[in-house]
Amino acid sequence: MNAPIVSPALTKNQALVFDALNRAEGPMSAYTILDKLRDHGFRAPLQVYRALDKLTEFGMVHRLESLNAFVACAHREHECCGGAQGHGHGTVAFAICESCNQVMEFHDHKVDHQLGDWAKSKGFKPSKTTIEIRGLCEKCAA
Amino acid sequence: MNAPIVSPALTKNQALVFDALNRAEGPMSAYTILDKLRDHGFRAPLQVYRALDKLTEFGMVHRLESLNAFVACAHREHECCGGAQGHGHGTVAFAICESCNQVMEFHDHKVDHQLGDWAKSKGFKPSKTTIEIRGLCEKCAA
DNA sequence: TTAGAGATGTAATGTTATTACATCAATTGC
DNA sequence: GCAATTGATGTAATAACATTACATCTCTAA
Ligand SMILES: [Zn+2]
Ligand SMILES: [Zn+2]
Ligand SMILES: [Zn+2]
Ligand SMILES: [Zn+2]
Questions:
Q1: How many domains does chain B have?
Q2: Roughly what angle, to the nearest 10 degrees, separates helices A12-23 and A45-58?
Q3: pLDDT tens, position by position, for chain A (142 residues)?
Q4: Which site from A111, A119, B79, B102 is most exposed, i.e. has the minimal number of CB atoms within 10 Å?
Q5: Which residues 76-135 of A interface with strand C at a CB distance below 7 A?
Q6: Prediction pTM value
Q7: Which residues of chain A does B119 touch, with a Cβ-Cβ cutoff of 8 Å?
């Protein structure tokens, strides 16, 4: 099954974590989230990790592998390139500014299809694809 | 400066780590490498991390972000898509089998250029790009 | 010969993630 | 109503990954 099109009802902990990520300006580590939620009763890492697992499964949150951190989903496109991954669309990519920590989430058909073609040609069956560009955003590169 | 075309002379520790990675069938974590090299005098994680840093800088080793692990470079292509990254070629991508842990390293012009175009259009200056496809290799998917 | 740069050794610490086990709450079937 | 199941939660302990700090050591260039 793919992730549901409509966001599922969140549990209390999931809602707290999702809210924290939405308020944040950039990605946060699980332990940073934990610290932000201590006032709301969070005491242990597992409370955060469990919520993040579900939110990721729902496609509402993405994990940035090169940062060991998490961001709320920011994609604004229609469903496309439907596949086994993500929010019912194809692979998501991220551009991460190493100066201001801003993250841009985007989806690129051509990249997605090209990687899909490569996989097909090799008989490789993708389950999850990570694309992360580290560098400097326009503002910070100036 | 880009990485040198010719591999530089390696220090003793760098050579030991590189050799361990080349002998390995798949990616290894820094601590796994440490354990393999205890007989050769390695005692602390930092000895491994320092060597890995240099080898990565030389383009002889790649870090797999989604695994927190390292592989010896396996690319066999000519220099192309020259850029600020890697061994004098463009971005490298990896397909990682979650069943047998085999890793395929490849370079795809179209993907590279497409991501480069996206960056250009946004004024983003890439320093390092990570592309990792997790899934099942042909053999394991059968 | 001495000052600087780079490599090394070691210990301690910091950061990220998981395992194990107990408990609680909502749902289902009887 | 009342077990049985399922999923969410709480807590502690531990595992896995990575860095900081500091002391040597070696080579080389002035
Ligand atoms: Zn998204
Ligand atoms: Zn920036
Ligand atoms: Zn390579
Ligand atoms: Zn396989």
A1: 1
A2: 80
A3: 344 445 678 999 999 999 999 999 999 999 999 999 999 999 999 999 999 999 999 999 999 999 999 999 997 654 566 544 445 557 899 999 999 999 999 999 999 999 999 999 999 999 999 999 999 999 999 8
A4: B79
A5: none
A6: 0.91
A7: 95, 133, 135
**Tokens 């400097």 found at:** A136
Q: Tell me, yes or no, whether B5 lies in a domain.
A: no
Q: Which two tokens stand for residue B12?
A: 């003793």
Residue A108 makes CB contacts below 8 A (sequence gap 6+) with A93, B114, B115, B118
Classify residue B30: in a domain, yes or no.
yes
Under DSSP, is residue B16 helix (H, G, I), strand (E, B) or coil?
helix
What CATH number does residue A42 fall under? 3.30.1490.190
Query: Which of A133, A136, A137 is the best residue to mutate to test the B interface, defined by the most B CB atoms within 10 Å of its own CB?
Result: A133
B59 lies in a domain?
Answer: yes
- The amino acid present at A59, given as its one-letter code, is G
